[in-house]
What we know:
The chain is α+β, with helices and mostly antiparallel strands. It has a single domain (5-150), classed as CBS-domain (Roll), CATH 3.10.580.10. 39% of the residues lie in helices and 21% in strands. The chain has seven helices and seven strands; from the N terminus they run H-E-H-E-E-H-E-E-H-H-H-E-E-H. It has helices at 5-8, 22-32, 52-60, 80-91, 95-98, 112-122, 142-150; strands at 10-11, 36-40, 46-51, 67-70, 73-76, 126-130, 136-141. The strands form three sheets. A three-stranded antiparallel beta sheet has the order 1-7-6. Strands 2-3 form a two-stranded antiparallel sheet. A two-stranded antiparallel sheet has the order 4-5. Strand 4 and strand 5 (73-76) form a beta hairpin. Helix 3 (52-60) packs across helix 4 (80-91). It is globular, with a radius of gyration of 18 Å.
Amino acid sequence: MPKTVAEVMTHDPIVVNPDTPLEEAIKILAERRISGLPVVDSAGKLVGILSEGDLMWRESGVTPPPYIMVLDSVIYLENPARYQRELHKALGQTVGEVMSDRPQSIKPEKSLQDAAKLMHDKGVHRLPVVDDTGKVTGVLTRGDVIRAMAKGE
């Protein structure tokens, strides 16, 4: 019988909230050697995810969108709203300012195969596991899936 997400996931994951100072979240990631954190509201419901990718803007910097000038008018060749979002992430001081606010998630009763397919299709490295109320009960990572495969599960 195929394994479920609940059988393989990390239970009781470390979570942060949107008001958590970014420096505190960075320390948690570094000290625990994890690459992402679910972000929850005061009721424990998933509202976002903070990943290493979200933090790269701080070090890599933000490049303004290309533009051309025509008769004293600026015409952007890319959407300037994307630049504004990237700049906001680069300058953010709290988890809420930097997190991705539309995270993929999965239910604990789903099969490991369904989870692996979702991770592959969406290009995500981790899935917060949420119950029927949206509360985070665990996290499933690509590493968890690989370890289950190695055990022949």
